[in-house]
Amino acid sequence: MAGPARADENGLIARYFAPLAGPGADRMRDDAATLAPTPGHDLVLTADALVAGVHHFPDDPPASIARKALGVNLSDLAAKGATPRGILLTLALPDDWSEDWLAAFSAGLGTATAEHGCPLLGGDTVRARGAMVIGVTALGEVPAGDMVRRVTARVGDRICVTGTIGDAALGLALRLEPEAPWIAALDDGMREYLRDRYLHPRPRLALAEALRRHASAAMDVSDGLAGDCAKMLGEGRGARIAADAIPLSAAAARAVRAEPALIERILTGGDDYEILCTVPDSALDALRAEAAAVGVPLAVVGTVTSGDGPPAFEMGDGTARVFAAGAFSHF
Amino acid sequence: MAGPARADENGLIARYFAPLAGPGADRMRDDAATLAPTPGHDLVLTADALVAGVHHFPDDPPASIARKALGVNLSDLAAKGATPRGILLTLALPDDWSEDWLAAFSAGLGTATAEHGCPLLGGDTVRARGAMVIGVTALGEVPAGDMVRRVTARVGDRICVTGTIGDAALGLALRLEPEAPWIAALDDGMREYLRDRYLHPRPRLALAEALRRHASAAMDVSDGLAGDCAKMLGEGRGARIAADAIPLSAAAARAVRAEPALIERILTGGDDYEILCTVPDSALDALRAEAAAVGVPLAVVGTVTSGDGPPAFEMGDGTARVFAAGAFSHF
User: Fold this and answer.
1) Residues of B whose CB is below 8 A from A44
2) Tens digits of per-residue pLDDT, A10-38?
3) Which of residues 219-238 of A touch B (CB under 8 A)?
4) Inter-chain touch A55–B139, beta carbons under 8 Å
5) What percentage of chain B carries pLDDT values higher than 90?
6) pLDDT of B102-142, one tens digit each?
7) Is B257 on the interface with A (CB under 8 A)?
8) Which residues does B158 contact at the CB level (< 8 Å), separation at least 6?
9) Are residue A95 and residue A234 in the same domain, yes or no?
10) B125 and B69 in one domain?
11) Is A327 within the bounds of a domain?
């Protein structure tokens, strides 16, 4: 089903992607790249894709889309305790792509990969038959055997989250329902902050080493805190979480005061890209101290319990609520 | 832009992809997998995507699509002299996907990954806004420093190809133009053979070790022999190729007798997934012997020359022809 070329793929690669190439990628002049982990280390592999109109708005700035495509993958590496080593990029371009778009995308990607020391190692550029799909495979490394797992929490462990929760979901809501009454309660800076949180994940790589040392389990929060917490705990474990302990930004806090029902969106909305982890009580102080030392805010929000069922959120009014796991999904 | 879940991604992963998981992938219950190359080895990384309606027909058998998605990537590893270690799969599913389709696709993928000792290590399943996109990142390994490069041929090296060239392009032509007169010259078995060659790449992994030992440069032929040969030689080198020496299957040979103009399609059509390599004259006999020992047909088709310009094909009638590099492309 191939057809006459409508663009010179090699020329595009040389112009836009070769400058981003890591040492094992030979300026993208080969069909494969080499990578060797540091001796005594395992590679950590993860893949996450963005689809225009599903994971981002098609008219978002190309550099922001690039940062997000990288960030959502680096966020997974951070949660696993890994240090980034490189990425492969598969770009399915829609019919209306332009070189201007690609130039801005690759420039944004180059800035972000340089910032994280995570060069481009390869990829593929194809023609989509529909919306753009941006697939990234990210490679990181950990000392052998030290990857932080997802379903290894123990009953009694404390549950922690980094940063603030719900900002990206509200940033998305701002764009989808710009006339919602709660938005008027925010000042311009708050609205800008929420929009930025939706556009630009901030992978918590600074916390990776502390997670390796202290966390009993971890994952990044990408599909909503409630559902991801249930996913992390797996079968035979539950959680008691104090809703009031969940860290909210000033903007999110004001939004909830204006419209209390938004708490559901905050707890089930996606795109936080914060770290959710569990830690034995004995290691909690050390994890908090190390998080503080690297400038990552960390809040203790609950405790791992025995038994099945979704995490129970103890609300400020004394009631307990559960949220259906996976109620919100990118799929 | 996420919305309410229309399917349980985790359930799909557990049912269809967990059985394909390699040891570092923990039955797909985590957001990342680990992999360590054999000590003293480099990992070799490559990524290639298939788009329905571009790289395959949407109604091709799902197991065939899976085999192709894996095969085109393993073909790159083979050309680089690498042994497969695992893959990550990013699947963007169109609105009309069905569980039956996914069951057949994952079963086919499982058969193919098992055959090649190349388990699934991770991936992502997302909703496409258009045609299906199947992105595969493949990881292989080579002894440290031994990856066979693409643009490292030397003037005077002999040019070799494995198998037969043009079958897949004719198999595609059969489907796109079923009334073309040359098709009537073929018997049923030949037509079936050509269709199969388009559907099912056969990565030449058996040749990987011999390529590491003897080839000065190599790549797989995916976008047509003429263009890929130009790509392999890069700047400052050309090639003289004897068109009569290019190995054709019985089916392709009969098709060309019926319609001589098909030679252009054979030399510029895509999807061969054979190996194109260069070898110093002194190593030619050894490479041929080792190829024969592992059952891979290998033909010497030409010589690397100095100077720029596309490879010159010396035709049976004494004329020399060139084919525009990239005249045929998947992009």
Assistant:
1) 32-34
2) 888 889 999 999 989 988 889 999 999 99
3) 219-220, 223, 231, 234
4) no
5) 89
6) 999 999 999 999 999 999 999 999 999 999 999 999 999 99
7) no
8) B278, B279, B280, B281, B284, B300, B302, B303, B304
9) no
10) yes
11) no
